[in-house]
Amino acid sequence: xxxxxxxxxxxxxxxxxxxxxxxxxxxxxxxxxxxxxxxxxxxxxxxxxxxxxxxxxxxxxxxxxxxxxxxxxxxxxxxxxxxxxxxxxxxxxxxxxxxxxxxxxxxxxxxxxxxxxxxxxxxxxxxxxxxxxxxxxxxxxxxxxxxxxxxxxxxxxxxxxxxxxxxxxxxxxxxxxxxxxxxxxxxxxxxxxxxxxxxxxxxxxxxxxxxxxxxxxxxxxxxxxxxxxxxxxxxxxxxxxxxxxxxxxxxxxxxxxxxxxxxxxxxxxxxxxxxxxxxxxxxxxxxxxxxxxxxxxxxxxxxxxxx
Length: 307
Ligand code: GZL
Prior knowledge:
The protein is α/β, with parallel strands linked by helices. Helices cover 40% and strands 20% of the residues.
């Protein structure tokens, strides 16, 4: 659909209004919904004409959307790649059409040079390390085995790969920590619920759940409670994103720690789009600032949450 100032005609939109084509992953999680809202609101505030497409978490839909933006002759293309690989062909097509590309949220793996101007997003490896550091601290005084199940994000996506690797790097320093099962829950609540149910039916001694996002953690809580166990007590839960529902679950004692992943990238994205369109230099990598919140902070932080 075409959004923003006046819904421009085919081609570069009316006059000097910047026409931005944005291909979004989907609407799979609370994080994503907040991210989309931030992008749409910021494009409107910037006076850009936004052409927005939701790929329902399918790479081929994103590739199709990018090709369509090239046909339309938009001024700038921005997207959040659902998975890391398989983008070279379409990114080379955008470069050949002289349309600058901005990566947001997730990264791509590419052998091509100069196929995107900048990547604005979180450091997912560091998010994984933060999760691992909390666990190491939590079990600092015990040398008992700690049996962990891991709800991974979408297979092949940068956040899933990097949150897995950052976590493994930190817990790998002490062999009392063991990931006894790890499976893709696709960043959705239903995925988290189904996979946690499977974990519980094949393991009766789980100490910790590490969920790559809050939606999967919240789905997993339903399965943990259905199994007659106490989330946050019998099974400690580490989650990532920091959506309001996760802070509420922390306040209720069901999640132990949330590693923040900030979806409100809209304003920074529009600033980068403006600079890229004007041919100004932009940093190759723009990181997003974000923190870690534990149960004791949840009640107080909840009213401050913007997503
Ligand atoms: C992270 C983002 C991830 C979120 C999930 O930047 O790509 O995708 O952690 C979302 O909630 O589905």
